[in-house]
Design a protein that fits this description.
The chain has about 170 residues and is mostly beta strands. Helix content is about 0%, strand content about 75%. The strands form two sheets. Strands 1, 2, 3, 4, 5, 6, 7 and 10 form an eight-stranded antiparallel beta sheet that branches. It is elongated, with a radius of gyration of 20 Å. The relative contact order is 0.17.
């Protein structure tokens, strides 16, 4: 239920199918780290990262010195969650996987014949499963007087991207 920022790195080669369509094979890596401070015992540190390979169908609008691309697709994504306990070297690691969807819009403007600037935005919905350790035991949220809930790595994200594109 929280909103937070995270860092994402990506590479996305694209294959042109015809003058209007292409297929993009994207690999993106999302990472986030945060600390929950506890005055008596120190802080809990939590890290998660998600590998997000995605195949997208891209519609291309081409003009004089620019491209506009609209795309969407899906892929199977892999996540890892790590928690470090306060005042201890004890660490727990959990992994999961599941389907992820992406919609994007990108604009490219020419700097030269092959080099373009990129500005874009995307929306992701990721439905990764329950986080489990190497022994298959799931991560759970335990409440004092309530249900025990399994923890899943599911999220929606909105991103803005800036970069450079080189066309061969």
């Amino acid at each position: 239920a929280d909103f937070a920022s995270a860092v994402e790195f990506f590479a996305a080669p694209e294959i042109t199918l015809n003058s209007d369509f292409g297929v993009k094979l994207e690999y993106a890596y999302l990472l986030k780290s945060y600390t929950l401070a506890q005055s008596a015992v120190g802080g809990y540190q939590f890290d998660y990262n998600v590998h997000m390979p995605t195949v997208l169908l891209v519609y291309v609008l081409e003009g004089e010195g620019f491209y506009v691309k609209l795309g969407g697709g899906a892929g199977y994504h892999f996540g890892k969650f790590t928690q470090l306990f306060p005042n201890s070297a004890s660490e727990s690691r959990f992994t999961t996987g599941g389907i992820g969807f992406k919609l994007e819009a990108m604009g490219n403007t020419a700097f030269s014949e092959s080099l373009y600037g990129l500005i874009g935005g995307d929306v992701r919905l990721d439905f990764l499963g329950r986080l489990k350790d190497n022994d298959g035991k799931g991560l759970e949220i335990r409440r004092a007087f309530g249900p025990i809930d399994p923890v899943r790595l599911r999220f929606a994200s909105v991103g803005i991207k800036f970069g450079l594109v080189y066309y061969f």
